[in-house]
Amino acid sequence: MLSLKENIKEQLFLSPDAKILRLVDKIFNFAIGCEAEEIYFEPRGKNLAVNFRAGGELIDTLVLPGKAEQAVLDGIKSMAGLNDEPRNHPRGSFKKDYLGYKIIFSLNVHDTEAGERIIVNLRKEKFELLGLGRLGFDARALAAVKKILLAGRGLVAVISNDEAARTSVLYGLLNFIKNSELNIATVEEEPAADLSGINQSRINPRAGFSRGSAVNALRRQDIDAAMISEIGDRETAEAAFHLAAAAHLVMAGVAAPDFSAALNFFQDLGAPLSLFSVSAKLAINVTMADKNCPYCLARRKISAAGLARLEKKLALAELLPRLKQDKIISGKINHPADLVFYQSRGCPRCHNSARAGKIGIFEVLEITPAVKDLIKTGHFSALSREFGKQGAYSQSEDALIKALGGLIPLEPVLKLFN
């Protein structure tokens, strides 16, 4: 299989008289096919480096000759209508049709010592609103989430350093609860999608409409449920906790790597953890991983080094009986070395990217009296033991299960143990 770098070089092989916009268009098409989130056009000496960020990884893609540098940069700016803009942090955007949907390309151009640098962000114009069942929750976690949502009160914290992951889950929760009988409101920086029947509000700090003031305003309204895209300051945290404590359902994003870090964050803000304990019902830790393309999936045995890392972090010998009991693996597997994983090879249907969208890797923790006691005493590091006590899988275990099922490649699992 050709590497991404070899593939793009092959696709970008053009005759000397080819139009520069055709070259740029091919770069953009390949980036979309690889599900890249960003493209970096960066001057490097006498050349122009083109790098992709896909699946959270920066991929060194190709280098264009310096003689094409300015023409390529001018071509990109022309597509975004930036030709007449001053060279002082101009921003622009344009849309491109691709396989029946539109991609929005947002440009950020700025000067460096080496020359002009352009960062292009890619996103679908239409946000893909996923049902809870498609986000990646296992059966037990899905049941716990639905139970809390149907109860219709308390705080559900969606925790991740990845804004896109938080947004996908929060909108999935909204999609599950929305109906004509509920008064639902949101507080967001930028709504990812228009949701009929839901009152979506966009914050405007310059006009005095901050997240905190917006959430406090909801406390004076007759709402049943609220979604807050991010709790990032003390005012918002306290308002969200009070709103949830007053028998409202509040779904809120928190930028943190895990539940323990989120609690430390609240503590650093000076937000009362006692009020959080009263209002909180569920913590959802999530990270997104690339899904394997199902059309070019192949079996893959784990290396000895990879197996050693898994055994060290996951205590596989102890985990195997539980995986058997839950019918995740065959009863014939008696040793970690017998585990089989899967890796997509790349094919025309996935544009040789080996990927087919994203899926969430989750930890779902119910805020039980035992969890509240740990929060009260400040023993946040001990919270990880509660997942097992609740019959839940940890995030690393959930990643392993998805890898064993062929949903994701092995690499994201190993990265969780770095």
How many structural domains are formed by the residues? Answer: 3
- The helix/strand class is alpha/beta
At CATH level 2, the architecture of the largest domain is: 3-Layer(aba) Sandwich
Number of strands: 15
End-to-end gap? 27 Å
Q: Strand count, sense and closure of the main sheet? A: 7 strands, mixed
- CATH fold name of the largest domain, please? Rossmann fold
The fraction of residues in strands falls at: 25-35%
Average residue pLDDT: 84
Layout of helices and strands, plus pairs?
Blueprint: H1 4-11, H2 20-33, E1 36-44, E2 47-54, E3 57-65, H3 69-79, E4 91-98, E5 101-112, E6 115-124, H4 132-135, H5 139-151, E7 154-159, H6 163-177, E8 184-188, E9 199-202, H7 211-219, E10 225-228, H8 234-245, E11 249-254, H9 259-269, H10 273-279, E12 280-292, E13 297-301, H11 304-314, H12 316-325, E14 340-344, E15 355-366, H13 369-377, H14 384-389, H15 395-404, H16 411-415
Parallel strand pairs: 7-11, 7-12, 8-9, 8-10, 10-11
Antiparallel strand pairs: 1-2, 1-6, 2-3, 4-5, 5-6, 12-15, 13-14
Helix pairs in contact: 2-3, 7-8, 8-10, 11-12
Any overview of this molecule?
The protein is of the alpha/beta class. The chain has 3 domains: 4-124, Beta-Lactamase (2-Layer Sandwich); 132-291 and 340-415, Rossmann fold (3-Layer(aba) Sandwich); 303-338, no CATH class. The protein is 37% helix and 28% strand. The protein has 16 helices and 15 strands. The chain has helices at 4-11, 20-33, 69-79, 132-135, 139-151, 163-177, 211-219, 234-245, 259-269, 273-279, 304-314, 316-325, 369-377, 384-389, 395-404, 411-415; strands at residues 36-44, 47-54, 57-65, 91-98, 101-112, 115-124, 154-159, 184-188, 199-202, 225-228, 249-254, 280-292, 297-301, 340-344, 355-366. The strands form 3 sheets. It has a 7-stranded mixed sheet, sandwiched between helices. Strand 4 (91-98) and strand 5 (101-112) form a beta hairpin. Helix 8 runs parallel beside helix 10. It starts with a helix and ends with a helix. The relative contact order is 0.10.
